[in-house]
């Protein structure tokens, strides 16, 4: 990823409001009914909590294992990753994000939760920095994989850095990759 693209990503996500001035935005992920419905479709249980259905499946699959080192790309403020630490699925996370304002918010949240020693925020492109094979036992993608310029390459990278027996955890949009196909879709 070249510097121009990285800077554009940083500018967009750093300026995008983390909270609205009046606090009145309603997003789908703020609706308890929608969250319970999604969790039921994912796990069979209409539970509360964003991505909790998938978290429950991950816990079930791991059979009580606590993963040692997780990595997340495009983590935003890292709240989803910190939730996994708090729920005992992971011990620590390396969190990659390109928007410095999101990182600042994440560091503040980690401090408030008392887990700042368990999260390491890095403002960079993980796919360029993290190249060591089998260096993590948990690779996390949550609402970020579809933003990658080459999703197939990102999944290959995930496999490369994931140690054998580790978990590939992906909760994401599964449609056309990146920014491709929008004009073709409009024509349909």
TrEMBL record:
Keywords: Methyltransferase, Transferase. The keyword Methyltransferase applies. It comes from the Bacteria. One of its GO terms (molecular function) is methyltransferase activity. Gene3D superfamilies: Vaccinia Virus protein VP39. GO terms for biological process: methylation. This is Class I SAM-dependent methyltransferase. InterPro entries: Methyltranfer_dom, SAM-dependent_MTases_sf. Residues 71-174 form the Methyltransferase domain. It comes from Rhodocytophaga rosea.
């Amino acid at each position: 990823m070249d510097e121009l693209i990285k800077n554009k990503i940083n500018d967009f996500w750093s300026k995008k409001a983390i909270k609205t001035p009046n606090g009145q935005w309603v997003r789908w992920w703020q609706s308890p009914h929608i969250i319970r419905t999604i969790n039921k479709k994912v796990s069979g249980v209409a539970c509360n909590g964003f991505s909790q259905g998938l978290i429950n499946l991950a816990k079930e699959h791991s059979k009580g294992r606590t993963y040692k080192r997780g990595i997340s790309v495009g983590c935003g403020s890292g709240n989803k990753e910190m939730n996994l630490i708090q729920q005992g699925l992971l011990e620590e996370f390396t969190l990659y994000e390109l928007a410095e304002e999101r990182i600042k918010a994440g560091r503040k949240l980690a401090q408030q939760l008392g887990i700042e020693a368990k999260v390491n925020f890095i403002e960079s492109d993980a796919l360029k920095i993290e190249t060591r094979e089998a260096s993590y036992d948990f690779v996390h993608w949550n609402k970020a994989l579809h933003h990658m310029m080459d999703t197939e390459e990102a999944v290959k990278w995930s496999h490369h850095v994931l140690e054998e027996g580790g978990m590939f955890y992906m909760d994401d949009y599964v449609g056309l990759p990146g920014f491709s196909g929008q004009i073709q879709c409009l024509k349909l």
